[in-house]
Amino acid sequence: MTKAGFTVRASQLRAIAWVRWRLFVNSLRSTRGKLNLVSRLIVSLGFAIIGLGGAVGMGTAAFFFVSEGKPGLLVALLWPILFFWQVFPIMATAFTNNPDSSDLLRFPLNYGSYFLVRLAYGAADPATALGTLWSFGILLGVGLARPKLLPWTWLVLLAFAAFNLVFMQMIFAWVERWLARRRTREIMGILFLLLLLSVQLIAPLSGYFTKRPRPEVRRFAELLIQGQKVLPPGLAARAIAQAAASQLRAAFNSLGLLCAFVLAIGYCLHVRLLEQYRGESLGETSATRVLPADRRLRLGWNLPGFAFPVAAVFEKEIRSLLRSGPMLLTLIMPIFMLIIFRFGPVNSVRQSGPAIPGHSPGLAFPAAAGFALLTLTNLVYNNFGGDGSGIQFFYACPVRFRDIVLGKNVTHASILAIETAVVWVAVVSLFGKPTINMIVATLTGLLFAATVNFSVGNVLSIYSPKKFDYSTFGRQRASQTTVLISMGVQLLVVGTAVSAFWIARRYGNSWVANLILLLLAVIALYAYRAVLRHIDRVAREHQEMLVAELCRA
Amino acid sequence: MDTASTICTQSLTRRFGEFVAVDGIDLRVSRGQFFGFLGPNGAGKSTTIKMLTGLLAPSSGRIEILGLDLAAHPVEVKQQIGVVPEGMALFGRLTGYEFLNFAGRMYGLDRETAARRTVELLDFMQLADQPKKLVTDYSHGMQKKLAMAAAVIHGPKVLFLDEPFEGVDAIAAGTLKAMLQGMIARGATIFLTSHVLEIVERLCSHVAIIHQGRLVAQGSLEELRAGVEAQTPVHGERLVLSGERLTLEQIFLRTVGGMRRTDQELSWLG
Description:
heterodimer; A: mainly alpha; B: alpha/beta; 6-stranded mixed beta sheet; 5-stranded antiparallel beta sheet; 9 helices
């Protein structure tokens, strides 16, 4: 490269660093930005504690492994580091759209600079910081146990860190490609959530296999242990162990293989980045299939007893929800929780500890039904969050807001009704049939709780809205104010229900609780009607704020 | 108020804190007019159109649409108007068919009529060949066409369009223009904002120009032309040669005081 070329390249990299800094400084102009900085500092402090604690732990373990003459066991430390380094960044992004670094491509940036910038973005990641810190802990542990091994361990861990850095960037480059499209983003989101949920099943499964040892499982485990030796953590641990045993040739071979992994993964990253550099389009609109024009007449839904607009909103809400994989998955959570409570690790407490709601056949139904309502609160307390700029349509069309809100509430009530029915079937199959008294108590309690939640939710949806995207999992929570008030409402509802049962117990008749809950439900229904009566005025008064918040890009 | 006007505003004002976005404007738009509402960036066009369609409450002043006070009869007014606002106001998780059908029913059409008009409009807008595609996956131009279809599905008497041709291809723009001219021929009134002055000049019979929140000109194109030609040209400005007509761009620049830079500036370019 000529000197002038190098100067231009260095100037470009400095400009990119400067613009990142200015973006950060400018973000502090708003209160939200300042609060974000404070929360980032708190999170960073947490990371620092985890990092230092982990480094001390890793260092101590490495010291013992090497002092005891078992440096091969270092692999038990390197695999968790690799796992964290690769998985944490994906979890942290929570499957939302990321800022596209390929925006830089409009400038005359050469490929080398682009590659470097991508690696630098990766190096500034918390996972890299923690992974490096923990590797450093291992280095110190090994160095303290066998000072002569220090330079070699440093070299091996450097190659291991380089592998992790390049591997993470490669995964990200591919994930970025998948996340660019709504459909693949949803599929990945669902797979990711299923992965997280399946972790809950590890304990029951391992318990199952411990009780019934099977030779094929043992053989599979042995195969895994042999296989991991030729993968980067295994190679790094072997390189150190072989050097400790003075098998220098074998140690060099292991390090060489590790470096080959770095190069191979680096090549895969290069292929992906080169595609981006050459102007690959990851937009939503590519590759659409043109079909013959559809001229079939399909009538909209009818909802007996409700006005046309209510039925139209109901249909719109149901159709939108049915197309949201993440939302649907959230709605089946109560069933999943029932299964986990029935077979999960908490099961062991059942014999000795106090009664857990999900374990007692009597309490399983109200607990699961209550949880079903809780999973709906994200929607109930942020009625318009998923409408985005569509909120303008509601204001522009000749329909009262009470009809729109009623349509949304009917949707949520229908989902709750279906969920309660499904939960009942699940409870009957997993725990046995609840008593009639408990079924009535649950249904009246649910009516009361749902009506209270709908009333407060309708008001908060207008007072404190927050835009969210049906197609993503992460950052879909309501505003902080809404979350706090919602928690208060849940405490109030649960407290009231418990009081009803306490009073019933005092009278020695459990049906008294049902009567009290029914009365409370009637009062809540009156409150709900009052909210609906005033919702048009509230919506009009908060029109600008609601539109501004939901139409925000 | 002028009861003969389809759209009539009186001292319409909108403040955002200290900033006055729209400052006491008096608009008069008669039935059957294709009315262009022009202004530089940040002049108050979108704020005005939002107030006229009930999407934003005025700070003061009065709006009458089709002789009805918008503040007193919002539902009645909205039943007779259609609007394509700045953000298009679409629901991304519906297909084009579902969205139009939904819009029709929200505007009070019965189920059969809503479904029939949905099919006709999708066909007309050339959106019928991707029936399963969600609105969120539509291109910008397709979304614009869909927003336009939703605005007319109930056959409005007055149509408000904020930058309707932005991002729309030439074929679709031709189709839309034909549809709008057909509406005008049948007696509808169209109120349109656009930065593309050639389109406004070709379509609109009447124009108003807003600048820094104030209405600085209003009338038919001929009236505006005559007004500007009567003004003394600023030093060194060549307004019109004999026999040439002033273009809308020239009228606009003269009215809002826009100055062309000299070609000595930025001489390093090209």
